[in-house]
Amino acid sequence: MLDEFPWITVISDEVYDYLTFDSHKHVHFATIKNNWQRTVSIFSGGKLFSCTGWKVGWAIAPQELINLGGIINNTVTYSQNTPAQVAFAHGLNDASSPDYNEHTGDSYTEDTRKYFQSTRDYMVNELAKVDLPWTLIPSEGGYFILADISKCKSVIPSKYLTTHDYEASDDAHPVNKYELYLPGEPQGRIPLDQAFCRWMAVEK
């Protein structure tokens, strides 16, 4: 790959590397062929330890790339404290150690992965019961569940699809509207995802 695209540098967001479901294994982009030479892999202690607001993470890359990252980090990081960084570093040493869960013998990362998978399964099952013509797409990892809403257009009231004036009634508190239209589409056509979200927020 590097020989074919020598001018490309990859910043690979791998903050969910431990959080894969259904026996899927995460593959680091940098380990594919000779991509190590061009890849900055970014990880998150905040994701791993379920405290995303703490914003503690790390990057792994060849020295010439990671040095540049260090220069940038020194000029833009302003809110993280040293004790949190030290705490995460100690936590990483134990995150993969066995017997975190005294009942199963699982490590912290494995126990967390199973918990998130069970939560995903629960949410997918419950969302499937909702009376909407959507198709749920179970994630293979991470925090999110996607849904194909292309068949929902027929159940969305037309006002959400044709105008940005979507308040529930004339007496509703005025809402600041971001009038987003699709490029190349005539004024008055609201993107389906935006119409769907407004309808859900206002009426559901």
Describe the structure.
This protein is of the alpha+beta class. Among the domains are: 85 residues, Aspartate Aminotransferase, domain 2 (3-Layer(aba) Sandwich), CATH 3.40.640.10; 55 residues, no CATH class. Helix content is 34%, strand content 10%. The chain has six helices and five strands, in the order ββαβαααββαα. The strands form two sheets. The chain has a three-stranded mixed sheet. It has a two-stranded antiparallel sheet with strand order 4-5. β4 and β5 form a beta hairpin.
Provide the descriptors you would attach to this structure in a database record:
single chain, 204 residues, alpha+beta, Aspartate Aminotransferase, domain 2, two-stranded antiparallel ribbon, 6 helices, 5 strands, 10% strand
